[in-house]
Design brief:
Length: about 130
C-alpha cells in the first residue's frame, strides 16, 4: 500500500506541473501566450484571471499530496473543477471547432487522466482506512 500511495503522490506531483506552469505563463504573458493577434484589454484581463485560478488549482492539488489518502473530499472537489473545465472545452470544440494539439491534450488530461486519478485516490483512501481498522 505504501508503494502505491507513493506512486500516486508522484504522479499527482508531476500532473500538478501542468496547471502551475501554464497558470504562471498565462498570468505573466496574458492572452498573448497563445499568439492570437490582436488582444483586447478585456480578453487579456479575463485570460490572466482564469490563469490565476488555474495556477491556484494546481497549488491546491499540491496541498493534497502529503496525506493524499486522507484528502478524498478535497481531491474530488478539485478534480470536479478540472472535469467541468474539460466539459467546457469540449463544448468549445463542438461550437467553434477543433483546438490545437496542446488543447486537445488538455482535454485528455481533464476528461480522462483526472477522473482516473480521482478513482486511484479513492482506492488508496479505502485501503488506508481498512489498514487503520486492523
Amino acid at each position: 500500500m505504501i508503494r502505491e500511495r507513493t506512486l500516486l503522490q508522484g504522479v499527482v506531483a508531476v500532473a500538478c506541473l501542468v496547471p502551475i506552469l501554464t497558470g504562471i505563463d498565462g498570468v505573466l504573458r496574458g492572452a498573448a501566450m497563445l499568439r492570437p493577434g490582436v488582444v483586447t484589454a478585456d480578453l487579456d484581463s479575463h485570460f490572466r484571471y482564469l490563469s490565476g485560478i488555474f495556477l491556484m488549482l494546481g497549488m491546491a492539488f499540491v496541498s493534497t499530496i502529503p496525506a493524499i489518502e486522507r484528502q478524498g473530499p478535497r481531491f474530488r472537489l478539485l478534480g470536479a473543477m478540472v472535469v467541468m473545465g474539460g466539459l467546457a472545452r469540449l463544448l468549445s470544440w463542438a461550437a467553434v471547432g477543433a483546438p490545437s494539439l496542446p488543447h486537445r491534450l488538455g482535454l485528455v488530461m481533464e476528461l480522462v487522466v483526472v477522473p482516473l486519478l480521482i478513482l486511484w485516490q479513492a482506492r488508496i483512501a479505502a485501503r488506508a482506512t481498512r489498514e487503520t481498522r486492523k
